[in-house]
Amino acid sequence: MAAVAAAAMLASACTRVVSDVPARLPPRVRGWLHVDGQRIVDDAGRTVDLRGIQVPGMASGSGYPRRDLPAGACGGWSTPGPATYDSIARWGFNFVRVGISWSNLEPTPPLGVGSGPPVHHYNAGYVEALDRLIHQFSVRGVAVVLEMAQSKWSPAFKNVPTSTGVVCEGYGMPGWLYPSTGITIPQAKLSFFGSPEVQDEYGAAWRFIAQRYSTDPSVVGLDLVNEPYLPRKLSPTLLHLDDFYLRLGAAIRSVNQRALLLFQDSSSAPDVPSGLTRPPPFAGVVYTFHLYTPRWRPQGLGLTQSYQARARAWKVPLLMTEFNAFGYASTHDSNPDWTAQVGQLLAYCRQQGVGWSFHGYGGGKLLIPDTNRTRPGLLPAIQAGF
User: Which residue, 185, 180, 135, 145, is CA-closest to 162?
Assistant: First the structure.
């Protein structure tokens, strides 16, 4: 009998499924969020600890869903599958950062620019898909931050070399902004940040999105632009970020007074000066940064503290909207001590009241490439920061 009991216990141990739900969950975000000094709070004035993850799929492309791409095209947007919604909610994240793009929202140029008020034709299929995505997270109790994304700036730029290979095209700004193939990405960025007229059209796209979700409390934040960086040899002052955020904030606040406005600086490198001199002059603004350093100490800690100092001087909250576990959640070589490094980072954020969003769910980040399995040890390391 003893042998049978022992065998049963062994079989039970071998088949036991370890739960991927952490013991400690951050509170769900319920209702609109507000800024109170350096805190993000709910309607009752309680501090809200934001713990999120990036959801890919909606930024890439020039208006076509991935399943309907024309011949020769390589971009294309897509919505998450049911497993993504369920997993993110079950794992305990209380918000998602969802990248969208102007190139998908407005794949054809507005009519009448220069001869009267522009007439915009926004992509109905894309917007309806975004509606469904937001609803699927909302019914699971997960709030949404919409981020106007860009990587390699625009689908106008093809076969772009990167540190990990060649990408078939960029995404973000519409291709119709760049009919000439002779322009480079830095030149395109300088042209955009130096052109109030083009920024007004970008602001119109944001105004459309902001108004659409102005009564939806699950859309808690709008991330104004992703990584407004320039090459090191160019001064961040060329971005004119103070004026840029003033223009964008005014466009959004004209139709949406409730969503938080997330604004980012001109670089994620600690030795590059800031392109900002002040926060955007609106209620509900949140300063954000990305952390891609090889180690937490000294590089990561030093960078975080530099952003904290600016946030304190400006009296605004600070939110880390991207980090990648010190290379473990990427195709780059990772720090072999990444687990301890992530633990130190997230413990510091918890102690200092800095919210965060992990980058990201798919695309070889949290999930192993081309699988639905998480990287060994990564999910519990992140959940320890809850």
Answer: 185
The residue extents of the domains of the chain are 23-383
Question: pLDDT tens digit string along 76-87?
Answer: 999 999 999 999
Residue 125 structure tokens: 């299929």
- The encoded tokens of residue 37 equal 């000094």
Which pTM does this prediction carry? 0.93
Task: Residue 382: name the closest of 25, 18, 48 by CA.
Answer: 25
Measured CA to CA, the distance from residue 359 to residue 372 in angstroms comes to 16
3-state DSSP assignment of residue 131: helix
- 3-class DSSP assignment, residue 52: strand
DSSP 214: T
Closest CA to 101 of 130, 73, 128, 80: 130
d(CA 346, CA 39): 17
Cα–Cα distance between 160 and 152 in angstroms, integer? 7
User: Which CATH number describes the domain made up of 23-383?
Assistant: 3.20.20.80
